[in-house]
# Entry
Amino acid sequence: MTSSIGSTILGYPRIGPRRELKRALEKYWAAASGESELRAVARELCARTWRELSAAGLDSVPGNTFSYYDHVLDTATMLGAVPARFRALGLGPLDTYFAMARGAGRTAPLELTKWFDTNYHYLVPEIGPDTEFTLADHTPVTDYLEASTLGVPTRPVLLGPVTFLLLAKPAAGAPEDFRPLDRLADVLPAYRRLLRELHAAGADWVQFDEPALAADRTESELDAVRTAYAALGELGNRPSILVAGYFGDLDGAIDVLAAAPVEGLAVDLVSSPSTVDRVAEQPGLADKTLVAGVIDGRNVWRTNLDAALTTVTTLRESARDVAVSTSCSLLHVPYDVEAEPSLDPEVRPHLAFAVQKVREVVTLGRALTNGRASVGAAFEASRAARAVTGRTYNHRVRARLEMVRPAHIRRPDYETRRRLQDNALRLPPLPTTTVGSFPQTADLRKTRAAWRRGDVSTEQYRERMREEIRDIVRLQEDVGLDVLVHGEPERGDMVQYVAEHLDGFATTEHGWVQSYGSRCVRPPILFGDVSRPAPFTVEWARYGQSLTDKPVKGMLTGPVTMLAWSFVRNDQSAADTAAQVALALRDEVRDLERAGIGVIQVDEPALRELLPLRRRDRRDYLCWAVESFRLATSGVADVTQIHTHLCYAEFGDVLDAIVALEADVTSIEAARSHMEVLDDLAAVGFARGVGPGVYDIHSPRVPGAAEIARLLAEAMESVPVGRLWVNPDCGLKTRGYAETEEALRAMVEGAQTARRSLR
Ligand code: GLN
Ligand code: ZN
# Structure
């Protein structure tokens, strides 16, 4: 007999409310603690989560939500999919796991990439035709048993077999036409065995996460879903199966899942409200539990409980049983609003982080079973909080946006601009530059922390930044770079820094969200109309420029990236929000120009990552993304050179947008893909300046001058010399000075060799 789920969440943050896991991991990696100490921290975090979630009143508590690094890596390990190069290290299980995540000596780690369209990154499993799958690790079972011992029966969360294989990449040496999904039949026995073990341990339900179903899927991929859940569903003694598809609408996959022999389906009604109608058309749900994801698991706003309750109540007619839930795991939001006493009192009432979202779920669940009146006070309090008028409306911003005309996002033709810019800048062929940041040293970070605490005065802090800029400019002159940067010492984070200087953004103190492994970010909260009270980069750029006769680039973060790496208001379209940010940046761009900065770079590293999962939504997105960039950058004179920087390896879907950005110079990641991107760009008619990264800054490896000259020779086959720039793949922020200096010298020498070949 299938038990009811009632109220639940699909997953929970695991780094710890005070980033306890981060600290414990880093200590362990630094060999300052042992495995048992790390495991004890993990166990404590798990226990705390189970107790809290159960005490909060969730009817069904998710289990197995902890991970030492990443849940996709956990799944690969659990299925025994450990590539030979890691086995060969001869390490124990935990260190093998960390070697896959971080590399070990000369053994390269698994590739790290974006988890769908979130800011979380997972490790890409490598699966080949010969990968042997077994149930090599029983963590979901031990996790279940441990929670049970503490009196909390959980619903173990597993990464579903289809998504797991779709996220994997073919192992090196696999035949051309091999796809990891071809191995479905071979992973299913391990999953079946796990189901049996969980059943024996006493689990009522398990949850299989299949977010890959929210992206476009082929018929054969949908067949794989059918096969997988038929094989798991037909098992005799097993827990009830809940399949969770989130981050968008499930389209055709919903028909497949509704017809599958599983007991529950979780849908994301926040990113796809129209799923409500789709669900109503599914006769197959009549004997299933529908888990309604009505609380936004990815954003920080308080839920409109009345509206959510209406939705869930409507759904009751479509399924055997309806449960209330978050739209996805709460992994993507910070822990607790209560930890932010200094947040703007007009913003704070509107926020709900993980702890608050759990309470919302519980309240809604009770309203659904016992009627709204049974939780009337909670509903009332929520309504009152949402009614607090925030400073979201700025009529001057609105009026200005109304005034935007096509002429504001256009610059005269590129050839005209280019002639003027060439005359003004007088650069050698193959000009060398960097992407913006120089190493963020421990001392810089320490000084910033001291300044924030008030231990260092603002004037002292500024002087320390100026000192750093002096050193950075001197280094670049000494190395012989052509277009310099001030090095961004004042920016701990390129989004946070800009957000701190714009109205309409709030920043948090403890609002950490896991990005990958021990790395966390604190996304700013974009809550209201955005404007720029005063210039915030001009002082640094001007100071940098005062130190040299060479051009120094002004440096800004573009509107798309500002949105992508923030929590964004949901009461207006992203297009409007981006346009507001763009106008604020446009002011800054103009002020930089006025201060004598002739080259201005507006970074859009996140352009690719906000790309919608479904093809049909992409045009719209790319349209507003491009327009916002152009709105930010088209206010300058023709002689001012606009640069942009994009940093990802797969450009396929955004090539046309890169052309449409109209930047005079685009620096782009290319070292790892051997300049392939240049031909791709040429194929879509890109004919402006381009700086394909000539070395990979993600690795401490220092390139040789000959290697750089070779890459440039290759690049010159795709791009006319007059348009080619020379720069690293990305900013140098995470590197050390020794390797940075060496690498830049090699880069300049390589460019000189390439220039000589032109004579
Ligand atoms: N200008 C930024 C830097 O160099 C760009 C960073 C990025 O692309 N993520 O750090
Ligand atoms: Zn980059």
Observations:
- Residues 435-437, 488, 494, 555, 603, 605, 645, 647, 730-731, 733 surround glutamine (ligand 1) (CB under 6 Å).
- The domain at 440-756 is CATH 3.20.20.210 (TIM Barrel).
- Residues 35-56 form the longest helix (22 residues).
